[in-house]
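Following up on my earlier thread - several people asked me to post the actual chain instead of describing it. Fair enough. Here it is, all 166 residues.
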Amino acid sequence: MNEDTILHFYRILENSLLESDISKIKEGDIDAWSQSFKKVVAESKERSGKGVFVPFLMWKLGEISPVEASKYLDRRKDDECRVSYDHNNVEYVVWVMALMFMSWSITNLKRKTQNGHCQNIEHPHGDTNPRYCHEGTKFHQELYNECVKTFRDLLIHSNSLKEEKL
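Reply from S.P.:
Thanks for posting it. Predicted structure:
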């Protein structure tokens, strides 16, 4: 992951945060979101009723993140600059969400690598669980390595920003 990609993702979240400003949300927006939510859930149930509904996931994480931030992140305050951060600030909420997403990604992909995650029951493993598929292990190891590399790239970029500012 290069600096342009990192900044691209930053801008997406930054713009989404600006669009999510509570002072800009109108009653019609809430009604439209509610109707959209109901429609997507109904369509999903008609098809299979399975899968993750990402807006609902984000809503749940939005509820959980401040609680987790209050447990794991210390309050910070600088009287001179008149700034403070605690579990209610968006920076802390997003920080905790990032930790949850990173932890889940690493743990999930590592487990799938170890178990040789495979959906093809025509392979010699058949319908057993875990499947210990060689191809599944190889596939998920590559995915895991790429995921870890992107996290490392982000840290390298972060460290280079610190050096530039000093």
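The CA atoms of residues 105 and 147 lie 8 Å apart. That should answer part of your original question.
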